[in-house]
Fold histidine kinase.
Amino acid sequence: MPAWNRSSLRARTTWATGAVAALVCIGFSMLFLVFVGNQESESAETRATAGWDRVLPIIKLGQLPSVLPESRGDAIQVLNAHGRVVSATHQLVGRPPIATLPPGNDAAVRSQRSLCHVDGLTGCKTVVLFKVFQPDGIWLVNVAVPGVPWYGNRTVLSLVIGMSLLMTTMMAVGVSRAVGKTLGPVDAIRTELKEITGTGLHRRVPVPLNQDEIRLLAETVNATLDRLEGAYEQLRQFTSDASHDLRSPITAMRAQVEEGLMYPDDTDWPRTATEVLTGIDRLQAIVTDLLNLAKLDAGVMLNRRPTDLANMIAAELDRRTYRVRIVRRFSRSVVVDCDRLRVIRLLTNLLDNAERHADEQITIIVRADGPMAVLEVLDDGAGIAPEHRETVFDRFTRLEASRSRDAGGTGLGLPIARQIAQAHDGTLTIDDSAQGARFVLRLPRCDNSH
Ligand SMILES: Nc1ncnc2c1ncn2[C@@H]1O[C@H](COP(=O)(O)OP(=O)(O)OP(=O)(O)O)[C@@H](O)[C@H]1O
Ligand SMILES: [Mg+2]
């Protein structure tokens, strides 16, 4: 369960729900109480009218006793035209008038007042004044019935307050529980993420069973962790491979120099220097490759220019000689918008690899394929098994067969080549072929002939 503290989402939602529920309850309670109050005062008025109905015929008949019989405990007082009490129920016998008409006698036939602390009566009362028109003037019948507060009566008030408190508490507790239940998995994910930060990337956050947003969140977090772990592992592997590849030539050079120094007179120093220079060349090549990769990883700006692919490749092939036969199958006017130096770097690596592995011949094809320009480099060597066709693009990957053919390679050529292809929005893959390896580069064409 998520921790309960005042600023937590759960606490805030609970308080907000409680406040809204309380406001709604107060609103409805007020309406209900006012309604009940109106009903009660209507029935009090009916009760007062019944008292008047009872007394009026007796007044009219002139048979008014000095003590009136009472009904339901309601007090009645009859005042003659001079304002003197001529008859009253027993509570008001001998008491002064509880209410009189205002001066000027212009009050309505029936009027009403709320009076408290009336002599002879307990509590607050609603006193209804009825005018009775007699030959000698206007008589007054005061009927006092129990006073009705605006909320009706206390029982209803207590009931309404109790119900409101109960509803508000139930809503707040219900929402608090629901939010707690909803946030439980989020808290579990947070706790696990905290652990992962402290211990390692191999752990995953718990995925709740419900098909909801929190499950999607957990799945996304786990997918991100998968990628992070993969990237971290790749970086770790890369660093360890790079250090290993840098250390080998350094160790070899150091051994050569140490041996020379141990037997300086027997050492062929020019030969040692040449061997050390070879080592330095290798170190330089590795460092240059690493730098190239780092630049491509960082998304370096390309110096693009529209280039006829066949022309550029032909010029590159003419620059050097190969130990095997080169077959060219070029379509003309296949133009790509490319950074020439980098595409030549890609091509050189494919040609170097092909020359290293070919038996007799390398075939180079340039053609258009819809919106794409295609460059294929095929050799007639042993080829690359399907299961290695992706791994050879991983950094520092060298297959067993080529280690024997050329100990000098570092396994960075193809990863760089693929990065160059991708930087040009293209692809570099190894496709099926009848014999040998078939590298296929696809780049978007920039000529409008397709
Ligand atoms: N034409 C090919 N035929 C068979 N195997 C190949 C061919 N081209 C590449 N490979 C395999 O792929 C591996 C990776 O090639 P890549 O060009 O990345 O590295 P390299 O040539 O060994 O070293 P570098 O290019 O960094 O000097 C090679 O070591 C080799 O095993
Ligand atoms: Mg290579």
In short: DSSP finds eight helices and 13 strands in the chain. The two ends are 63 Å apart (CA to CA). The domain at 200-299 is CATH 1.10.287.130 (Helix Hairpins). The mean pLDDT is 90.
